[in-house]
Amino acid sequence: MGNSDTLKRRGLMFVLSSPSGAGKTTMARRLLVEDDEIAMSVSVTTRPQRPGEVDGKDYIFATRERFMEMVEADEFLEWAEVFGNHYGTPKAQIKAGLKEGRDFLFDIDWQGTQQLYQRAEADVVRVFLLPPSIGELERRLSSRGTDSAEVIAGRMARARSEISHWDGYDYVVVNDDMDACFAKVCTILQAERMRRARQTGLVSFVRDLTA
Ligand code: 5GP
Predict the structure, then answer these.
(1) Measuring from each residue's beta carbon to the nearest atom of ligand 1, which residues come in under 6 Å?
(2) Are 9 and 101 within 8 A, CB to CB?
(3) pLDDT digits (tens, 9 = 90+) for 97-118
(4) Nearest one of 76, 162, 174 to 131, comparing CA atoms
(5) What is the Cα–Cα distance from 190 to 184, expressed in whole angstroms?
(6) Domains recognised in the chain with CATH numbers
(7) What is the pLDDT of residues 138-190, one digit of tens each?
């Protein structure tokens, strides 16, 4: 590892959005495994814990009352109501992490992304994944087993509406090959880490270089 890799830098918030079926979950999991400088942003939610979910790891589970207290106290970077439940990104962990050069991965929809961008534009990198074709998306959404045509049609309608928000992102990657797509996502992350404004250690590094 060269000197430049050990320079102090500010972390970033990496938002990965896509319609379901475009490979977002696979990309996110792989990124978390293969890159040790990025961690999932853990959201607070009021929805009931599902079997297998770990409190504090998958989500921080909270009552509606507690959630609203946090809203009142301005403890969220962004929050939203999704399917009748509340979800929010707590400020404290992110603020401290970014300062220490840690990156956070966000799995939030376009509305959450917009809010996040409004609150913290300079720290946010927005990536949107698209399926290679509508036929391929339909195949991916219907290959999940025994779902009825109606259920699949509902998923397709939701996917179409999510796709319509593609222009609110900094980068758009068409996912026709998982490995190629993953490589592109990694390239975006690496390049964004090297932005001059994020490399907070540069001033002293260059001072030493030229001393
Ligand atoms: P689930 O309940 O299935 O885990 O998530 C439902 C939806 O909530 C997903 O679309 C997910 O992207 C969204 N979501 C999860 N956490 C947050 C958050 O902190 N903020 C926002 N805006 N959406 C979230």
Answers:
(1) 43, 47, 78, 80, 82, 87-89, 107-109, 112
(2) yes
(3) 999 999 999 988 888 899 999 9
(4) 174
(5) 10
(6) 4-41+102-210 (3.40.50.300)
(7) 988 887 677 788 888 998 998 999 999 999 999 999 999 999 999 999 999 99
